[in-house]
Specification:
By secondary structure, the protein is mostly helical. The chain contains 4 helices and no strands. The chain has one domain.
């Protein structure tokens, strides 16, 4: 039996208390969280979400931890 996992629910739990202004990933999750299992079988959609989420995380990590960037 094939198990389809919606990554938004797990991520949503992790970032519930994060301010949207300082962390745009929360806004992205809100936009996509209610998609059904059939939509998550679409590799292009899932890849797009994960790529976008990683880009946001990368930018935020650099902002918070890059001492040379200041």
């Amino acid at each position: 039996m094939e198990i389809i996992v919606n990554p938004f629910y797990k991520i949503k739990d992790i970032i519930k208390t994060v301010d949207v202004q300082s962390f745009p990933l929360k806004r992205l999750v809100e936009q996509y969280k209610d998609l059904g299992k059939e939509k998550w079988k679409d590799l292009e959609l899932t890849s797009y979400f994960l790529d976008t989420a990683l880009d946001i995380l990368d930018i935020k990590m650099k902002f918070f931890f890059c001492t040379e960037c200041e």
